[in-house]
């Protein structure tokens, strides 16, 4: 849980005054739909109760004073000097200010003191939470009226163009648009959204999120390689994006190598799984999500090749320990798994996964159980 008193106190320490407000944006779990977003496909995330919070206030000059509570670090930048390519944690906040100004929104200097309880590098969109909280804070300080999807797009611009991570819109849309007790169905081409009720508690269910503590980064080469491979395959197939492939077998026969065929098979079948999950959720039969989660993980492991041994062990042990279904969530190469479990079983299953990790010589994981939470807003 965020310590709001500590956030206010640090702001007071840095500036000598109380913040004008506190804003937040949550991390997210992607229930299903991995690496479909940049292929114009479908995703079904939901927001976490874990969030990034920002205590904010205006300045009389054109500087940004950025402070991280957890890192005990302070960075000062001039708005006019902001430029893509900045490194470090402060780039995620500065990039939002840059994106707002590039889009023609009038903002001045600001003091932004940040805290977050979204695990870093775990595939829960800690960066999107920071970006979307910054969007909310700067909107609030400077009375900007920006529709929710446009806020998500601005946060994505910050991540893509300023930080340099080639992610799709899924993370920022989820952090901004999600509602409590619902998933967000997002068509990544049309940007049509639909709130999908996920009454897990009513059905005696919850989602276990387990961080394998195997860090990953979207800025590294593997994520970009997968994206380029999909774009090349779409060009070969003569379609705008892999979302437009309707005959998978015929498409695979046209591709030049087995690696590309595996990549395409994952994206096409994952889109199908998202659409099936949507129908399952609409029917209210949430236990029927389980086989879709299992199939998604197998596809990410075997076709998209984005899992790692710790992730695969966690998924396998979760199933052995009584999870109904489990999969890796996030961009891959580390991070978290999710498991659909009976309510109240999270700690036991987490402990059994931890024991399997210890036996295999891996470091200890961390875990917590979740229900879908609300998207970005004002805390105080």
Automatic annotation (TrEMBL):
This is Galactokinase. Belongs to the GHMP kinase family. GalK subfamily. It is an enzyme of class 2 (transferase). InterPro entries: Galactokinase, Galactokinase_bac, Galactokinase_CS, GalKase_N, GHMP_kinase_C_dom, GHMP_kinase_C_sf, GHMP_kinase_N_dom, GHMP_knse_ATP-bd_CS. ATP binds at residues 68, 121-127. Substrate binds at residues 34-37, 223. Residues 10-57 form the Galactokinase N-terminal domain. Residues 92-177 form the GHMP kinase N-terminal domain. Gene3D superfamilies: 3.30.230.10, GHMP kinase, C-terminal domain. GO terms for biological process: galactose metabolic process. Residues 280-357 form the GHMP kinase C-terminal domain. Keywords: ATP-binding, Carbohydrate metabolism, Cytoplasm, Galactose metabolism, Kinase, Magnesium, Metal-binding, Nucleotide-binding, Transferase. One of its GO terms (cellular component) is cytosol. Mg(2+) binds at residues 127, 159. It comes from Tessaracoccus flavescens. It comes from the Bacteria. It is found in: Cytoplasm. It catalyses: alpha-D-galactose + ATP = alpha-D-galactose 1-phosphate + ADP + H(+). Its main location: cytoplasm. GO terms for molecular function: ATP binding; galactokinase activity; magnesium ion binding.
